[in-house]
Write a structure and sequence with these properties.
Order of helices and strands: HEEHHE
Radius of gyration: 13 Å
Largest sheet: 3 strands, mixed
Strand content: 15-25%
Structural class: alpha+beta
Shape: globular
Helix content: 25-40%
Strand order of the largest sheet: 1-2-3
Distance between the termini: 32 Å
Number of strands: 3
Amino acid sequence: MNTLKQKIEEMIGDDESILLADGFEDAFLGIGRQFNTAFAIYDREKCIEILMKDMSNEEAEEYFCFNVQGAWVGEQTPVFLERTI
C-alpha cells in the first residue's frame, strides 16, 4: 500500500515538493496550488482532535494555534482549512 508521501509524490511529480505537518496524516485533505507553489492542506478541526488524544481540548487548541498553525516555515507552509459547512 502506498504511503501518504508516496501518493503525494505521484500527484506533484519529481520537480516539486511540499512540506507536511508531522503527525497529522489523518487530517490531510489534499494539495493546493497558488501560482507556482504547491502546499499541503489539512482539516484544522481534525488536527485538534488528533492533539486531544494527548491533552485537553483547551490545551490542544492553544498548542495548535501557536505551534502548528502559527509556524511559518516558508512559502510551502501547510494550510489549515476551517470548514464552514
